[in-house]
Design goal:
mainly alpha; globular; single chain; 9 helices
Length: about 260
């Protein structure tokens, strides 16, 4: 399901590189809200999003909305909303990470008055930050030894730092696509020009990104990495314990069959 939802969002970002203008604001927002709602309903129907996880999702979205209200424009590119998205995605998986990111952005947009044509792009981009963290968490859990305590290993923090840095730049590049088309239309060497080939569009956008956004996104990537190093251990511990309480695990019995009338020790 996450692949289907991501495919719908990917069309928004690829459209200008295929020669088309930005999709109209109304349909783009409708597609975004529909995709987020569909993923939430599918997760609930599959019992991956029960009442406990839904309550946690609401709490994380509310905290991120409050953080964004306190620091609306971030600090030189860094915004505190990304840390909880990264941590929740890492512990609970890609789909949950997408929901935390997208709901956090939508709620904070309503709180801060940030509803506009840029909202669909920001919603998908933050959702994909959570997806990336969830994929990294799933990979690490496959290769590391069985967890003996709730304390995250260095591998956990290292993987999350890498995701924080990569997504710090990726989020900026993705959300810049809307501004590039909307405000730099026709600007020589860096602007978007209708009908350009995909290769020419990518070259133009690459120059635009380096000149206007690379330094800004460097602060975001560094800030997210520092947040993970500073707060990752206690937050991952708390979320890991919550994940265990809100889930269940089926284990094989090691006692073997018991005689009638007797119970396993």
């Amino acid at each position: 399901m996450i692949a289907f939802v991501s495919g719908a969002g990917l069309l928004l970002f690829l459209w200008p590189f295929l020669g088309g203008d930005l999709p109209p604001e109304g349909p783009a927002l409708a597609v975004t809200l529909g995709a987020v709602a569909a993923l939430a309903l599918m997760e609930a129907g599959a019992r991956h999003l029960d009442s406990g996880r839904l309550a946690l999702l609401a709490a994380l979205a509310a905290i991120d909305a409050a953080l964004r209200l306190a620091v609306v424009n971030g600090v030189a590119g860094f915004s505190p909303i990304f840390f909880l998205v990264l941590a929740a995605g890492y512990e609970f998986g890609p789909s949950y990470g997408f929901l935390v990111g997208s709901f956090s952005l939508l709620v904070s947009a309503l709180v801060t008055g940030g509803v506009g044509p840029w909202l669909p792009y920001e919603t998908f981009a933050v959702g994909w930050v959570g997806v990336s963290a969830g994929m990294a968490g799933s990979l690490v859990r496959r290769i590391r030894p069985v967890r003996e305590s709730w304390l995250p290993r260095r591998l956990d923090l290292a993987a999350l730092v890498v995701v924080a840095v990569v997504t710090g730049f990726a989020y900026g590049a993705l959300t810049d696509i809307w501004g590039w088309v909307a405000f730099y239309r026709g600007v020589e060497n860096v602007g978007w020009i209708p009908g350009m080939s995909p290769g020419a569009s990518l070259a133009q956008f690459g120059r635009y990104y380096v000149l206007t956004s690379l330094a800004w996104d460097t602060f975001r990537a560094a800030g997210d990495a520092i947040a993970v190093l500073a707060l990752g251990t206690p937050v991952l511990m708390a979320l890991g314990r919550l994940r265990a309480r809100l889930g269940y695990e089926i284990v094989a019995s090691v006692t073997g069959p018991q005689p009638p009338g007797e119970e396993a020790p």
